[in-house]
Amino acid sequence: LAVRQQAGFVVCPCCFRSNPGLPIPLPAPAEGRAAPLDASTREAARGEGGGEDGGVGLARRAGVTAAEWLGLASEDHTALCRAAEIQGDAQVASKAQRTLAALRADAAEKRWKEQRGAELR
Question: What is the value of pTM for the model shown?
Answer without folding.
Answer: 0.65
